[in-house]
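Researcher: Next entry in the queue.
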Amino acid sequence: MKMKKFFFSPVVMGGLLIIFSISMAVATFIENDFGASASYNAVYGTKWFELILLLLAINMTGQLFAYKLFRKEKLPVAIFHLAFLLMITGAAFTRYFGWEGSIHIREGEE
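Model: Structure for this entry, 110 residues:
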């Protein structure tokens, strides 16, 4: 029970958010110096980055229930958490079911 309470705590969420933001900052510097494909291969395309996002989603879901955020007076906080969960879910769908492409449009053409 103590482990569950700790895992769904704001302290863990804060730690995960710090790790997440540092890794995205590093990816930005890598992209600036070596290009987008290098940052994707070094950070965005790795399993540990996916794990951080998964842990963030699990933590937010747990906090919704642990702090009983579905009550009327805490509904704005619940909507805030649900919005982030929706963004993470959308990112997961895009990652696993989407595709990338490119199109070359010459100047003056449609």
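Model: The mean pLDDT is 93.
Researcher: Noted, moving on.
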